[in-house]
Amino acid sequence: MRYPITPAGSEDFRQAAKRRLPRALFDYIEGGAFAEQTAQANVHSFSRWRLQQRVLRDVEHINLAVNRLGQPYAAPLALGPVGLAGMMARRGETQAYRAAQHEHIPFCASTVSLCGINEIHQHRDTQPAWFQLYMMRDRDFVAQLLDRVQAQGVEVLVVTVDLAVLGVRYRDVRNGFESSRGLAKLNRFYDFVSHPQWLWDVGIKGGPHVFGNLTDAVPNARQLTDFKSWVDAQFDPRVTWDDIAWIRSRWPGKLVIKGILHSDDALQAVKVGADGLIISNHGGRQLDGAPCPIDILPEVHQHLVNQGCRDRIELWLDGGLRNPQDLLIALALGADGGLLGRAWIYALAGYGEFGVTQLLKQWRKALSVSLALMGCNDINQLNESHLIRS
User: Is the pLDDT of residue 177 over 90?
Assistant: First the structure.
């Protein structure tokens, strides 16, 4: 007989998610574009660095607290936007938001979350959620969405810019994830019913299965497939920096640009008035063969320093963060914070709100322990002297 273990890291949460989720859903969060070389490289890219251990220093008191984007947080860590999180656990976005608030960590809601920002904020105790926006062809709807998000008290808007066209994800193709044909529907049916715990908790009791932020645009939709044609038609390959300037003119809060992988694009984000940028390759789900964010980070950081504008914008890193030590490497290389993606969605899928809370507690403890062993008292003091190139 196999007894359940107490999850002690991202891989344990990943295995729990794999057991619980239908294959199509697990592959959706696990997979990357094409051959998935970039998705896999993101995780391994941190091994090119080692943390410098130092001894005989007073490390009784360790500080993880930071101020980021105008708000105090318990650590320089955020739950990044993940679409369809509500299909991984019942009303999953609300569970993750509650866990993030409990641990004083920011949570970013996705445009294509099942729970709309209004439902998510029904669970607000402290700070509002961040909101991630995909620029859409229907600019009038974008303007309405921005007004609605602002009215909900959102203060940080994250605009994803690396989705001019949708990447090709072979796992979704194999699973018929986006197909409404008879055979694909039959395969999904057998996939779902073979996971009865998920089927009862999420498939049956977890509705409505719609994109809560987009119901005004597709008012007659009753299920996710009803949104597909509208969402597919809304991805806009014509988006330029002029559109980001338009958003900046309409958005009074903090503006963060997600999907930067080039120093000149980072500088342009500063010029357009962004308050932060996220170095990201969309988790390897867009351009297979793209560089890993951790490899681009030092170049972007130094370029902004050389241009005299590093202090005008925050740098966050998204991609491949699976262990707390990965975050320390990113911070030492110039990042102001890191976003978790797959790591928190694994925890959510496997154990719900409890899992996300435990994951964040584990990360905060591991960050404190690692800093102590590095002889560093304050996470805000990390720099390249704390690293060794492997």
Answer: no
For 198-235, give one letter per residue: b (16+ CB within 10 A) or e: bbeebbeebeebbbbbbeebbeebeebeebeeebeebe
Is 282 an active-site residue?
yes
CA distances from 208 to 205, 231, 315, 337 (A): 9, 18, 36, 34
Interaxial angle between packed helices 241-250 and 139-151, expressed in degrees from 0 to 180 and rounded to the nearest 10: 40
- Per the structure block, which two tokens stand in for 169? 């994800």
pLDDT at residue 182 greater than cutoff 70? no
DSSP string, 134-185: E-BS-HHHHHHHHHHHHHTT--EEEEE-S-SSPPP-HHHHHTTTT--SHHHH
Give per-residue pLDDT as tens, 150-172: 999 999 999 999 998 989 999 99
- At residue 132, φ and ψ (nearest 5 deg) are -100, 130
Active-site residue (options: 282, 301, 303, 386): 282
Is the pTM above the cut of 0.90?
yes
Between CA 217 and CA 219 the distance in angstroms is: 6
pLDDT at 222: 75
Q: What is the pLDDT of residue 1?
A: 36
Question: Structure tokens of 48?
Answer: 């090119």
